[in-house]
Amino acid sequence: MIKGLITGITLLITGLSCSAQSDQVKHINSEQFQKVIQNEKGTLLDVRTESEFLNGHLPDAGQLNFYAFDFNKNLLLLPKNQPVYLYCNTGWRSKKAAETLVKNGYTNVYNLEEGIMEWELLNLPVVVEPNAKPETKDKMEWDEFNALVESGNPVFIDFYAPWCAPCRQMMPMIDDLKTEYAGRISVVKINADASKRLIKKLELGTVPYFVLYNQGQQTFSHKGLIERDRLENLFSEYL
């Protein structure tokens, strides 16, 4: 019992510590982020992969890959005497990086809360490098999308991105559902990184994002992880 109590107290303290670190980070939207990086000199850092960076990044940003084994080591080389401005695609990786900085004594840390996806929706400046190699897997354009959802059959769409951990977690289940419901419900994957014009038209700001269309009308949508049972119950309504 005492051991369990100690474990519970440890978990509570850890949770409070993480919450405190997040509270010390300045989470701001794209318009606010643009103002602070323009008005106060600091370190602007993109924490996505090199490929993501090359295919579109904020002007004057540096880059460190959040998933690299030496990420934290290199992150903590940043100077502490000036602001640090962090961003990724949706704000998750940059939030984690910001919390690491605060934990290690950085006191002026900003996070682009909704990531570069929101930034691009607002038509704020983005630099695409000449040597960028755009994503092509599961790419879809606007006219293809319209033809798909107007086909008359139920269409379930998984908007994902290759860098997105929750998306990768969901992928085996989505592939399994695609096979199981073949010929009855179309299960389609759309790569948000490869389909940026479509994403912008649909004004999507996060992945994973799931949506179901029937007879051209959107009848279901969900952001983030979702249970298989819930999707199977949803699909049963259209069979």
Task: Supply Rg.
Answer: 20 Å
The unreliable regions are 1-19
Q: Which descriptor suits the 3D outline?
A: elongated
Number of structural domains: 2
Q: If strands are numbered along the chain, what order do they take across the biggest sheet?
A: 1-5-4-2-3
Biggest β-sheet, characterized?
5 strands, parallel
What is the CATH C-level name of the largest domain? Alpha Beta
Compute the number of helices.
10
Write the CATH architecture name of the largest domain.
3-Layer(aba) Sandwich
Estimate the helix proportion, in percent: 40-55%
Beta-strand portion reads 15-25%
Which class best fits the helix and strand makeup?
A: alpha/beta
Terminal CA distance reads 51 Å
Total strand segments:
9
Average pLDDT across residues? 90
**N-to-C series of helices and strands:** HEHEHEHEHEHHEHEHEEH
Structure, explained:
This protein is an alpha/beta fold and 239 residues long. It folds into two domains: 2-121, 3-Layer(aba) Sandwich (Oxidized Rhodanese, domain 1); 142-236, Glutaredoxin, CATH 3.40.30.10. The protein is 43% helix and 18% strand. The strands form two sheets. The chain has a five-stranded parallel β-sheet. β4, α5 (92-103) and β5 (109-112) form a beta-alpha-beta unit. α1 packs across α5. It is elongated.
